[in-house]
Specification:
This protein is an all-alpha fold. It starts with a helix and ends in a 6-residue tail after the last helix. The protein has one domain: Tetracycline Repressor, domain 2, CATH 1.10.357. The model has no long low-confidence stretch (mean pLDDT 82). The radius of gyration is 16 Å and the shape is flat.
Length: 114
């Protein structure tokens, strides 16, 4: 998650604003909607695969469906990205928000701690 935190802190200086603007207009152009949905589904599969791997190793015992957890992770991170684009990272306390996300995941996945 530390890579995500650093990326969020530099969102405004990245190519992300251009990509965000392009896809925010997708609701007006159905050809973009398909691309956006494909991109979303690819990300969803990555998160689901990571969670399923943790389950197979006995590290996670999900309290909710894996797909729901994966979608929630995407929504959390996308929300922070959106705020970072609009407000800049200095107003968001990203480190604390990521701690909250980790707390949520630790709970919902019933992470086995050593």
């Amino acid at each position: 998650m530390s890579g995500i935190v650093e990326e969020l802190k530099h969102t405004r200086e990245s190519f992300a604003p251009v990509i965000f603007e392009y896809f925010m207009r997708s609701y007006r152009d159905s050809s973009r909607e398909r691309i956006l949905l494909d991109q979303y589904n690819q990300g969803l599969l990555v998160w689901m695969s990571a969670i399923e791997k943790g389950v197979s190793f006995g590290e996670f015992k999900p309290k909710l469906p894996i797909e729901t957890i994966a979608k929630t992770i995407i929504s959390f991170i996308d929300g922070i990205y959106c705020d970072a684009l609009q407000l800049g990272h200095s107003h968001l306390d990203i480190d604390e928000q990521m701690k909250a996300i980790v707390f949520f995941l630790t709970s919902v996945l019933e992470v086995e701690t050593v």
